[in-house]
Amino acid sequence: RQAVVYFGTPPGDERFAAAHTPAWVDFAAGIYGVPDLEGRGLKVGIDTHGTRFDPDAGDRSLDGESLDTARTWLRRRFPGMAEAPLVESRVCQYESTSTGDFLIDRHPDHHNVWLVGGGSGHGFKHGPAVGAYVTRLITTNTRPEALFSLETKGTVAQRAVY
User: Fold this and answer.
1) Hey, which of 34, 37, 51, 146 would disulfide with 23, CB 3.0 to 4.6 Å?
2) pTM
3) What is the tens place of the pLDDT at every residue in 14-62?
């Protein structure tokens, strides 16, 4: 469960437009965002290992904790936007591994089944390369790099990117 929040920029204020504000990632805080594009507002995404989420029954409304996290971060990094109006929010779901790395490995009990996932919200960008990599593994009967193996994945979040 990942919250994405858009805050309205002051009318006529170009400081938060793409020409003046870059996209950003604050790895330590687990926050990323982009400037106001096409008048949608300043985007703040909270990218942390959240709790498990049921895509069929989970609540997709923005929770107060996520909004508070976004506003606290804005107060520190974009003080002029700290009290900006909330104009849009989303709750996104995507699959992730405990390490944040892809999972690419054979199923431990079924040699002809491959497990490929863990895109962590950016897997679509890597789809062609992952497909080519898995094709090579299958056609050459090669093991995946240890980084992607099932053995390196756990149930506790342990991303080492920060």
Assistant:
1) 34
2) 0.73
3) 999 999 999 999 988 989 999 999 899 999 999 876 667 787 888 889 9
Residue 12's DSSP bridge partners are: none
- Give whole-number Cα distances, 46 to 77, 89, 154, 160, 161, in Å: 14, 11, 22, 17, 15
Closest CA to 33 of 46, 49, 20, 50: 46
Question: Which pair of structure tokens corresponds to residue 89?
Answer: 């929010």
The order of strands in the sheet holding 24-26 is 24-26, 31-34, 42-46, 2-7, 86-92
Instruction: Give the domains, in start order, of the chain with CATH numbers.
Output: 2-92 (3.30.9.10), 103-152 (no CATH)
Q: Two tokens at 139?
A: 């056609």
Which conformational region is residue 115 in: left (phi greater than 0), alpha (psi within -120 to 50 degrees), or beta? beta
Supply the DSSP string of 33-94, one letter for each residue.
Answer: EE-B-TTS-EEEEE-S------TTT---SPPHHHHHHHHHHHHHH-GGGTTPPEEEEEEE--
Separation between Cα atoms, residue 120 and residue 99, nearest integer Å: 10
